[in-house]
């Protein structure tokens, strides 16, 4: 039931965001000009399609369903939709074709495992898809993996961005920082300065960080009275002074 609610909520957001618009699916030739998060989710989607196809061919139906479920909940809903909201709120409609396409493809992959819910959602989505679609999801074509979408570099960089957001959220939670409060943070990057800068607004919004300093060496970040999280490609440094209201603590 929880997953069905998650699917309904995600679909409602996508369909509401599309309004009266109908969108074409993204094409691999557009990949190089896409933001990092778009390249990441499309790469993960097409990797999933190939994996699910192999698992079903090997009669590993349960594992195929688990992977489709985990992608939809953990990557599309929890991460990509939240990243897309940042751009949509800034007046950028470019995530809409990706949102519609990933939702459409995910529903097709999930249909054998939860046919009634996916059919009901897809009937509300199909008028927003171009070219015209089948009358019902059950007779719609099964997705095909396209290796031209696979992008290991985008997957690694997006994972690093998500790790940064998680690390800052964990620091906030451990220190009891109010959800509405922004904190200052430094990112000491190692070879991914460009990706970090491109994802600045997403990190600032999802981790509630302001200001965010992206620096190339540890010497540019403070070393005293800080909390540090060492990740694979990034070091997160959060000054203690930004985690609480000093005057309120003194009072």
UniProtKB/TrEMBL annotation:
Its EC number is 6.1.1.9. One of its GO terms (cellular component) is cytosol. Keywords: Aminoacyl-tRNA synthetase, ATP-binding, Ligase, Nucleotide-binding, Protein biosynthesis. GO terms for molecular function: ATP binding; valine-tRNA ligase activity. GO terms for biological process: valyl-tRNA aminoacylation. InterPro entries: Anticodon_Ia_Val, M/V/L/I-tRNA-synth_anticd-bd, tRNAsynth_Ia_anticodon-bd, Valyl-tRNA_ligase. SUPFAM superfamilies: Anticodon-binding domain of a subclass of class I aminoacyl-tRNA synthetases. Residues 38-179 form the Methionyl/Valyl/Leucyl/Isoleucyl-tRNA synthetase anticodon-binding domain. It catalyses: tRNA(Val) + L-valine + ATP = L-valyl-tRNA(Val) + AMP + diphosphate. This is valine--tRNA ligase. It comes from marine sediment metagenome. The lineage of its organism: unclassified sequences, metagenomes, ecological metagenomes.
């Amino acid at each position: 039931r929880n997953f069905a609610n998650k699917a309904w909520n995600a679909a409602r957001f996508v369909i509401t965001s599309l309004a009266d618009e109908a969108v074409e699916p993204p094409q691999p030739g557009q990949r190089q000009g896409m933001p990092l998060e778009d390249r990441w989710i499309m790469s993960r989607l097409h990797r999933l399609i190939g994996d699910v196809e192999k698992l079903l061919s090997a009669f590993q139906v349960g594992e195929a369903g688990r992977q489709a479920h985990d992608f939809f909940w953990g990557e599309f809903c929890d991460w990509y939709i939240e990243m897309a909201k940042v751009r949509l709120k800034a007046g950028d409609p470019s995530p809409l074709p990706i949102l519609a396409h990933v939702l459409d493809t995910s529903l097709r992959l999930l249909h054998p495992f939860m046919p009634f819910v996916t059919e009901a959602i897809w009937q509300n989505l199909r008028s927003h898809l171009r070219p015209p679609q089948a009358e019902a999801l059950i007779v719609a074509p099964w997705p095909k993996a396209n290796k031209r979408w696979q992008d290991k570099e985008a997957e690694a960089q997006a994972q690093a961005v998500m790790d940064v957001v998680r690390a800052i959220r964990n620091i906030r939670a451990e220190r009891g920082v109010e959800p509405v409060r922004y904190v200052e943070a430094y990112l000491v990057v190692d070879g991914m300065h460009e990706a970090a800068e491109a994802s600045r607004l997403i990190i600032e919004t999802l981790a509630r960080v302001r200001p965010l300093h992206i620096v190339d060496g540890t010497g540019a970040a403070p070393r005293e009275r800080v909390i540090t999280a060492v990740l694979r490609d990034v070091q997160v440094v959060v000054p203690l002074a930004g985690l609480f209201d000093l005057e309120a603590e003194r009072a």
